[in-house]
Design brief:
Elements lengths: L1 H4 L3 H16 L6 H11 L5 H4 L3 H5 L11 H17 L5 H12 L1 H22 L5 H9 L3
């Protein structure tokens, strides 16, 4: 994951665009690219947009614009899947499993993304690492 998230914004976006191009065209993909392609395939609303190349690469997404940043949305899915797969923070896999049983995997992830976004925003605002206990409590309130 660090190879994806440790890059500049444009590099990270290029990684998503290139993975989608390779996956769409049936070309060999790396294990990370396969994960990216899987997430993208589950979001057909972004397919045509991701094929716009430089337009997608340089697009600005602001709250005032009212358009969801597809790169952020897709990356949040990937981050959640990593957390669930490693059960870090401890207990998140069980919470995800309960939510997915009730709402389906994608809806569970969409609900959990709100809590993840809040945890990251609070950490950034406070200049510290995310508070895992508060994050898990927020997730527990979902279901």
């Amino acid at each position: 994951m660090s190879a994806l998230f440790g890059q500049s914004r444009d590099d990270m976006r290029r990684t998503w665009l290139e993975a989608w191009r390779r996956g769409r065209d049936g070309l060999p993909v790396t294990p990370l690219e396969a994960q990216l392609v899987d997430v993208i395939r589950e979001h057909p609303e972004y397919h045509a947009w991701l094929e716009r190349g430089d337009e997608a690469l340089h697009a600005q997404f602001t709250p005032e614009g009212g358009v969801t940043n597809p790169f952020l949305h897709l990356s949040m899915h990937l981050a959640l899947r990593e957390q669930v797969g490693t059960d870090r923070p401890a207990g998140i896999a069980a919470l995800h499993s309960r939510l997915a049983a009730r709402h389906g995997r994608m809806e569970a992830e969409h609900r959990m993304m709100e809590a993840l976004g809040r945890a990251l925003w609070e950490a950034q605002r406070a200049g510290r690492m995310p508070d895992e206990r508060a994050y898990l409590e927020d997730l527990r309130r979902l279901g």
